[in-house]
Amino acid sequence: MTPVVLIAEELAPAALDVLADDFDVRHVDGTDRTALLAGLAEADAIIVRSATRVDAEAVAAAPRLRVVARAGVGLDNVDVPAATARGVMVVNAPTSNIVSAAEQAIALLLAVARNTASASAALKQGEWKRARYTGVEVQGKTVGVVGLGRIGVLFAQRMAAFGTRLIAYDPYIQPARAAQLGVRLVGLDELLRESDFISVHLPRTPETLGLIGEKELATVKPGVRIINAARGGLIDERALADALAEGRVAGAGIDVFVTEPTTSSPLFAFDNVVVTPHLGASTAEAQDKAGLSVARSVKLALRGEFVPDA
Ligand code: NAD
Ligand code: MLT
Known about the structure:
Function: Catalyzes the reversible oxidation of 3-phospho-D-glycerate to 3-phosphonooxypyruvate, the first step of the phosphorylated L-serine biosynthesis pathway. Also catalyzes the reversible oxidation of 2-hydroxyglutarate to 2-oxoglutarate.
Order of helices and strands: EHEHEHEHEHHEHEHEHEHEHEEH
Shape: globular
Family: Belongs to the D-isomer specific 2-hydroxyacid dehydrogenase family.
Distance between the termini: 28 Å
Largest sheet: 7 strands, parallel
Strand order of the largest sheet: 8-7-6-9-10-11-12
Bound molecules: nicotinamide-adenine-dinucleotide, D-malate
Number of helices: 12
Structural class: alpha/beta
Pathway: Amino-acid biosynthesis; L-serine biosynthesis; L-serine from 3-phospho-D-glycerate: step 1/3
Catalytic activity: (2R)-3-phosphoglycerate + NAD(+) = 3-phosphooxypyruvate + NADH + H(+); (R)-2-hydroxyglutarate + NAD(+) = 2-oxoglutarate + NADH + H(+)
EC number: 1.1.1.95
C-alpha cells in the first residue's frame, strides 16, 4: 500500500514535487481538529507548520504514523515526548527560515522606530502629518537581544551594522562566543534596564513563557521599543499593553500572538504598535527551504533510510 503523507498546512510546491511520485499525498486543514484527526487515521507521515497541534491525542489517532515533520523551526506545537514514546520520528528544518525571521525582526524594529506603518496608513487616509510621525534613530542605541541562538545571532550581526551597542541575555551561551560577535552578555535585569530596543528570540518552553511580564516591564528603560518575532506569550500581551498605555514602552513590533490565528489583541489599540500575522518565515526562500528539507526527511524516513540532521 502506498504510504500516506498528510499535508496539514501550506507547503511550497517544490516540496510537494519531492513527495508526489512515491506517496499518496493528501491535504487537510490542520486547524480543523475533526478533519485532522480523521486524516491522521490513515497517515504514515504528517507535515505541519505552526498552526497545527500535533499533541498526544493527535498521535493516538494515527496508528500508522511514522514521522511528524515540522516545516520550520519551533517545535512547541508538537508533543515530541508523546511521539517519541510511540516510536514516531519528529523532524524539523532548524535553519530553513532563520534569515527570514531575523530580517522580519529588523523590519519590525525599523518600522517601530520610524512609525512606518501608522504614517503609511494615515497618508493613505489623506493625512500628510510629518511632525506626528517623527521617529528615532537606531544608531548609537543599546539593543538587547533575549536569546542569542541562531536567529538572535543573525539579528545581532545585522544590528551591529547600524552602529548599535549590543547586549544579550542567554544563560546557555558562553560569554566568549558572545564576545566574538561583539555582544556583551548580561543578566535579564540589566538588559531590561539598559536597552533602548529589546528583541526576543527564544523558543516557547515552560521556562520562557511569560518571561517578560508585568514585573519585568516595570523595570525597563522608559521609552524602550520591544520586538517579538519569536513566539506569542514570551512577552505577556496584557502587561505590554499596560506598559504602552502608561508610555513606559514607546512602541512594539509584534509578529506572534499567544493565541493564533487571532484578529483581536489588546495591542491592536495602539498606533505605535506594528503587528503582522506570524510572517517571520513567510518568504519564498524560507518556504522553499523548509518545505524541501522536511519533504526529503519524510521520504527518507518512510523508506526506512537514515535521516541526517537538517
Ligand atoms: P535556537 O535554539 O537556535 O536559539 C534559541 C536560544 O534561546 C538559544 O541560544 C537558547 O540558549 C536560548 N534560550 C533558551 N531558553 C532560554 C531562557 N530561558 N532564557 C534566555 N535564553 C534562552 O532557536 P532559533 O532558531 O534562534 O529560533 C528561536 C525561536 O524563534 C524558535 O524556537 C521559534 O519559536 C521562533 N521562530 C519564529 C519564526 C516566525 O515566523 N516568527 C520563525 C522562526 C523561528
Ligand atoms: C517557525 O518556528 O519556524 C516559525 O514559526 C515559522 C512558521 O512555521 O511559520
